[in-house]
Every structure is written in structure tokens, then in C-alpha cells.
């Protein structure tokens, strides 16, 4: 009968002090089985011993009872015969009893202080004096015991019984009973006891086995489950379905393991999260010693976990370039409870300098007391490189934008050259004419000073006008950095018309100015804002000319163009019935939630703006073009008549001024553009 296989378990050497695999364990079942078997054997042995002793005592009592019965009968018969001295009767009666009772070996009748009659199955004898064997002491009671008898040469059960008659004791009667029945019955008792003992032993073996098995198999099953859990298999469960204490223990173990599995899964999940973080995570105790680091921190410090564990972060691992920063870090974490995104440059092992972004918070224990700190370190080396690259790219972009703005200016100047030339031509003609008249007047001068002054005054006025045009054109075309100052919107628009106004007049485009009075000034760059206004007016001009071209015949179109370029009227040419008009309006605008929403004043009133509205009655824009007009290099003009940069540059300029530029209305009757810029205060 073998032992259950479930008891064979092995434990790893790491759990055995490194002594190698432990031998298979079967002890608990063997010890339980042997202990129960030994206990059963002791019980069986004691029971058998008691049974034998009690059986022997019962047999002896049976012999004593038989001897007492025979002795009482003989005593009654022989007592009368002794009194009557009828010894012949005594002898005959005793011999008769011996012949009829094979279990009686002898009968001895001994008279008090007299003779002794000894009867055996073969003979009888008479002794004048009692032998020492049959002597009795005074006060001796009836009793029986086993003793060796020299009379017959074997062991007998000797029973002594007093001979009495009329309550007087006359002597003693001795009977020797055979021990053969006793031995036969004792042997039967021994055999029966042995059979019963063997049966009980077999029952004890089976009972011990099943009891030990039922007791130890659940324990070993629970042990197997615990060892599986100890080896990391948290899915192991103890499969016991008993309702006793072991079943309750197994159920408690399963509940504990299930909770441990959930906790371990959560812990493993959290460990995976921590180890997967791209930022370095460090957990410090209350003394600044490192207790936990993740892989990102190890990579950042170029150290192993053994080199970092229980080391002082700010003394043994890193050095801040700012010597006072360490104290600030700790004070902010432990006193202010948290720090966020503190940028520092640290020096690690090997002297490498690493820019980092550090955040941290205190770590509390279950009682709510501070137990340490959690630090998060982000290596921003790559970000710093990107920031440097972005800064360089931004500078290049600014330079490019400045070049584009300057290019836009030059393009505008190129478009306005004809108008500026005519603008200068008129004053020059006046100056030349007046100079000729003055020259002729001087030759015939009669001392009339007033007439001379009247001739010189137009020269002076037109010279100043030419100087203003040339100086403004030179200022406008100069490449310079934006200088924000308080400027007057109306003045900017007037300066714009100083450059482009004559060109509009030559093309028969009427200009309507509706400037608001006492407008607050705005904060901006005079030169850039003038460029925006020029772009809007130039676009309005082109839209009007495009519409005019669509209404003229090819001949009329060519004649009108010649007229515009020469400034002279020709016979047969006519202007179209269509009259172009550009309207420029300035006013104080209302607040919109889309622009500078955060700059609302304390009294609830919104930020004030200056609105510049430029309306024309030229060709409108289609819906698809409205969404693209501010895209670089997008233009609706013919090839060679536009770069597509005007509105794109204007959009960037207005955004730099914290303003907004948009199309407010466009259809077949014309287009309306609005520029909105916040006031200076």
C-alpha cells in the first residue's frame, strides 16, 4: 500500500539556504500513519493483556468454584463420618468421587491433631501424623492456588476447605484439581485473543492509513498551493471541499491568494508603468536617501541600482551647478509639499552636464505623516537642442519676414512709380513755368516786389511738396526693425494716399475719406501699418480696374490706358460709365470675444479698438477665394500683376499688432475689408 503522490514536493535551493534541491518530503504522512499505528498497537496489546488476565482469572474462579462445590459436598459427607469414626465410608466415598471425577487428582482428609487419609485415583493411604504438606495453621481460611504436588508429580490446583460439623471444625479437606482444563481454555483464550488482535491490527492499519491520508492530503494540498504561490504562481488554489477547520483554512488561503494576486497584478502593472516612464522617477526617504528608481533614472545617471540604492541623491549622485539649488529643492519639497517644473542643470558621474526639469511632492505614510519624497526628473537635453534650433529658425523667419515685408514695399513702390513720377512732374512743371516767368519778369522788373513774391511762392510750395513726397518715399522704402509707438491712424492713411493718391486720380477712381475725429492712438509701427493700408488700397484699385476693364470694349480699354499713362485727353476716347470709388472709414470699434479677450478692464467694459474699413465697388471675391486670400503667394490677379504676398504680409503685421484683419463683405458690388487694432490705452 503506497503513499499518495501528492506528498512529493520539491523546494528550490534559494529557499533552502543555497544547499541545492531538498529531497522529497513524505514525513507528515509517515509520521501520522506510524503514530496512529503505534497507538493502535498499544491499545490492542493492552486489550489483549487485559483479556488474557481476565480470562485466566475467570478460569481460576471457575476452578475455585468447582473445588469449593466438591469440597463442600465432601465436607458435609465426611464430617458426619469423622464424628462417627466411620473411616471406611470416608475412604469409599472419596475413591468413588475420584473415579467419577477425572479432573480431581487427590482428596486428602486430615483430622485436627490426628491421622490423615490420602486418596488418589490409584490408591489411598493413612498416616498417623499429618505430613508437613497437609498441616494447617490456626485461623487458616478456605483457599485455592496452583502448586506443584509431589504426591502425583505435577502441578495441580490445590484447594483447602475446613471440615465442620455442628459448627465445630474437626479438620481440613484438601482437593487437588487438574490444570488441564485451565490450560486448554487458556490456550483457547490465547488463540482467540491473537485472532482478535490480528483483526484489530488490520483494522488499525487501515484506519491509520485512511485517517492519516484524510488528515495529511488536505494539508499537503495546501502546502503544495503555498509552495506554488511562493514560487510566483499566484493562480494556485487549494482544492479542498471539506467543511471542517482545514476546509476553512483552505478557503481563507484561497481568499488571501486571490487578494494577493490582485494586489500583485496591480503592483506589477504599476511597476510596468513606472519602468516604462520616459522620465526618471526617484523615491527618497525623509533623509534624502534613494529607495526606489526606475530605468529612466538609471539611464539618466548612468548607474546601476546597487550604486544608487540608499545613497544621498544630492550628495553622492548629482551635483547642481547652482550650489544653493539643493537646499531649495529639499525645502520646496518638504516644506512647500510640492515643486513643479523647476529647470536645473545637473552634473552627473563623469562630469556630464544635463539640463533637467524637476518636479516633486512629499510621500506620506498610512498615518498621514511625511515619510519621504517623490521626484520626477525629465532630461530636456533634446528639448534644449530643439529650442535652440527653433530660436535660430525663428530668427531666420523674422529675417525672412522682414525681407518679405521689404520686398512687398519695393513691389508696392514699383507699382506706384508711375503715380509718383506724375506726382513729381506736376510740381516740376509749375516750378519750371514760374521760373521762366520770373526770369522774364526780372528782365523787365520795375521794382514790384509783391508780384515777384507771388511768382516765387508756388515755387517754394511745390518744392516742399516734392521734398515731402521724396522723403516719405525714402522712409517707406527703408528696411528697419519694427518700432512700436503711439501713432495716429488717420495720419497713416493720409501718408499712404500721399504715395498712391495721384495714381488713383489718374485712373478716375474717387477716394472718399470718412475719418473719425479725436480717435485714440494705437500702439504700432508707423511704417508697417502704412504698408498694410497701401496693400488694401492697391487691391481695391486693382479690383476696380478689373471691373472697369470688363465693362470697356478692347478699343476703349486701350485708349483709356493710354490716357491714364500720358495724362492727356485725346479726341474720340471716352471714360466708361462705370465710376470707381474707394471709401476709407476710421472709427472706434466695439469689443469682440475673439480678440484680446483676456484684456478686459476691471469695470467690465471691453478693450477698445480702432477699425479701419476699406470698401471698393470693384469685382468681388468668390467664397473659395475668401478663405485663401491670406495664404502666401495666393493671388486672383493675372500672371505678372501680383506676387500674392501683399495680404499675407499684411496679415502677419496685423497679428504682430495684436489685431485682426478680415473680409467683412464681398459680392458683385464690391469688397469690404476691416482692420481692427487695439488702442494704446
TrEMBL record:
Q: What is catalyzed by this enzyme? A: ATP + protein L-histidine = ADP + protein N-phospho-L-histidine
Write the record's keywords in alphabetical order, separated by commas.
Answer: ATP-binding, Cell membrane, Kinase, Membrane, Nucleotide-binding, Phosphoprotein, Transferase, Transmembrane, Transmembrane helix, Two-component regulatory system
The molecular function terms of the Gene Ontology recorded here are: ATP binding; phosphorelay sensor kinase activity
Instruction: Tell me which residues make up the HAMP domain.
Output: 213-265
Which SUPFAM superfamilies has this protein been placed in? ATPase domain of HSP90 chaperone/DNA topoisomerase II/histidine kinase, HAMP domain-like, Homodimeric domain of signal transducing histidine kinase, PYP-like sensor domain (PAS domain), Sensory domain-like
Q: Where do the PAC domain residues begin and end?
A: 340-392
Boundaries of every Histidine kinase domain copy: 419-681
GO cellular component term, pick one: plasma membrane
Which residue ranges does UniProt annotate as crossing the membrane? 33-53, 189-212
Residue ranges of domain PAS in the record: 266-337
Q: Name its cellular compartments.
A: Cell membrane
Q: How does it sit in the membrane?
A: Multi-pass membrane protein
CDD domains membership: HAMP, HisKA, PAS
Which E.C. number(s) belong to this protein? 2.7.13.3
Organism superkingdom: Bacteria
The UniProt entry's GO biological process terms, in alphabetical order, are: regulation of DNA-templated transcription
Pfam families named among the record's database cross-references? HAMP, HATPase_c, HisKA, PAS
Q: What PANTHER family does the record point to?
A: SENSOR HISTIDINE KINASE (PTHR43065), TWO-COMPONENT SENSOR PPRA (PTHR43065:SF42)
How is this protein named in the record?
histidine kinase
Amino acid at each position: 500500500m503506497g503513499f499518495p503522490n501528492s506528498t512529493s514536493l520539491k523546494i528550490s535551493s534559494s529557499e533552502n539556504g543555497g544547499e541545492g534541491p531538498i529531497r522529497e518530503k513524505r514525513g507528515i504522512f509517515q509520521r501520522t500513519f506510524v503514530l496512529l499505528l503505534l497507538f493502535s498497537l498499544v491499545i490492542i496489546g493492552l486489550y489483549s493483556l487485559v483479556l488474557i488476565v481476565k480470562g485466566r482469572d475467570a478460569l481460576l474462579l471457575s476452578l475455585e468454584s468447582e473445588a469449593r462445590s466438591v469440597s463442600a459436598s465432601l465436607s458435609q459427607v465426611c464430617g458426619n463420618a469423622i464424628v462417627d469414626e466411620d473411616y471406611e465410608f470416608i475412604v469409599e466415598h472419596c475413591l468413588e468421587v475420584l473415579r467419577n471425577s477425572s479432573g480431581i487428582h487427590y482428596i486428602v482428609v486430615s483430622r485436627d491433631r490426628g491421622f490423615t487419609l490420602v486418596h488418589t485415583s490409584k490408591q489411598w493411604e493413612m498416616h498417623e501424623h499429618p505430613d508437613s504438606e497437609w498441616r494447617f495453621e490456626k485461623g487458616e481460611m478456605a483457599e485455592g492456588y496452583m502448586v506443584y504436588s509431589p504426591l502425583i508429580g505435577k502441578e495441580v490446583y490445590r484447594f483447602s476447605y475446613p471440615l465442620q460439623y455442628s459448627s465445630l471444625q474437626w479438620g481440613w479437606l484438601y482437593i487437588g484439581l487438574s490444570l488441564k482444563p485451565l490450560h486448554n481454555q487458556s490456550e483457547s483464550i490465547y488463540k482467540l485473543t491473537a485472532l482478535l488482535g490480528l483483526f484489530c491490527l488490520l483494522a488499525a492499519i487501515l484506519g491509520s492509513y485512511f485517517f492519516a491520508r484524510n488528515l495529511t492530503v488536505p494539508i499537503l494540498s495546501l502546502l503544495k498551493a503555498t509552495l506554488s504561490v511562493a514560487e510566483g504562481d499566484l493562480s494556485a488554489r487549494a482544492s479542498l471541499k471539506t467543511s471542517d477547520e482545514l476546509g476553512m483554512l483552505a478557503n481563507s488561503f484561497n481568499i488571501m491568494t486571490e487578494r494577493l494576486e490582485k494586489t500583485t497584478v496591480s503592483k506589477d502593472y504599476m511597476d510596468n508603468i513606472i519602468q516604462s516612464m520616459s522620465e526618471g522617477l526617484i523615491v527618497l526617504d525623509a533623509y534624502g536617501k534613494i529607495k526606489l528608481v526606475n530605468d529612466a533614472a538609471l539611464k539618466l545617471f548612468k548607474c546601476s541600482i546597487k550604486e544608487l540604492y540608499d545613497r544621498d541623491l544630492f550628495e553622492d549622485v548629482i551635483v547642481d551647478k547652482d550650489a544653493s539649488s539643493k537646499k531649495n529643492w529639499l525645502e520646496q519639497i518638504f516644506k512647500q509639499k510640492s515643486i513643479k517644473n523647476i529647470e536645473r542643470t545637473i552634473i552627473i558621474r563623469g562630469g556630464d552636464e544635463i539640463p533637467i526639469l524637476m518636479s516633486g511632492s512629499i510621500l506620506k505614510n498610512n498615518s498621514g505623516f511625511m515619510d519621504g519624497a517623490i521626484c520626477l526628473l525629465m532630461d530636456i537635453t533634446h528639448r534644449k537642442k530643439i529650442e535652440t534650433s527653433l530660436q535660430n529658425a525663428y530668427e531666420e523667419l523674422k529675417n525672412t519676414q522682414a525681407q518679405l515685408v521689404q520686398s512687398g514695399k519695393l513691389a508696392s513702390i514699383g507699382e506706384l512709380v508711375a503715380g509718383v513720377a506724375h506726382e513729381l512732374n506736376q510740381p516740376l512743371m509749375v516750378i519750371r513755368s514760374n521760373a521762366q516767368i520770373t526770369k522774364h519778369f526780372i528782365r523787365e522788373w520795375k521794382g514790384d516786389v509783391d508780384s515777384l513774391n507771388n511768382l516765387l511762392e508756388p515755387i517754394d510750395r511745390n518744392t516742399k511738396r516734392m521734398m515731402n513726397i521724396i522723403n516719405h518715399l525714402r522712409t517707406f522704402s527703408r528696411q528697419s526693425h519694427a518700432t512700436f509707438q503711439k501713432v495716429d491712424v488717420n495720419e497713416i492713411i493720409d501718408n499712404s494716399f500721399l504715395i498712391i493718391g495721384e495714381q488713383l486720380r489718374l485712373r478716375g477712381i474717387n477716394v472718399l475719406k470718412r475719418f473719425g475725429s479725436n480717435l485714440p492712438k494705437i500702439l504700432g509701427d508707423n511704417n508697417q501699418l502704412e504698408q498694410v493700408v497701401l496693400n488694401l488700397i492697391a487691391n481695391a484699385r486693382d479690383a476696380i480696374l478689373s471691373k472697369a476693364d470688363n465693362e470697356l470694349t478692347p478699343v476703349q480699354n486701350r485708349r483709356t490706358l493710354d490716357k491714364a499713362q500720358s495724362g492727356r485727353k485725346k479726341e474720340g476716347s471716352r471714360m466708361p460709365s462705370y465710376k470707381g470709388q474707394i471709401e476709407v472709414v476710421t472709427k472706434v470699434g466695439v469689443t469682440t470675444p475673439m480678440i484680446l479677450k483676456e484684456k478686459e478692464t476691471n469695470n467690465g467694459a471691453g478693450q477698445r479698438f480702432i477699425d479701419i474699413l476699406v470698401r471698393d465697388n470693384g469685382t468681388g471675391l468668390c467664397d473659395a477665394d475668401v478663405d485663401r486670400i491670406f495664404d502666401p503667394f495666393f493671388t486672383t490677379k493675372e500672371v505678372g500683376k501680383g506676387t500674392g504676398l501683399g495680404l499675407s504680409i499684411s496679415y502677419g503685421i496685423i497679428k504682430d499688432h495684436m489685431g485682426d484683419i478680415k473680409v467683412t463683405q464681398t459680392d458683385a458690388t464690391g469688397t469690404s475689408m476691416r482692420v481692427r487694432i487695439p488702442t494704446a490705452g
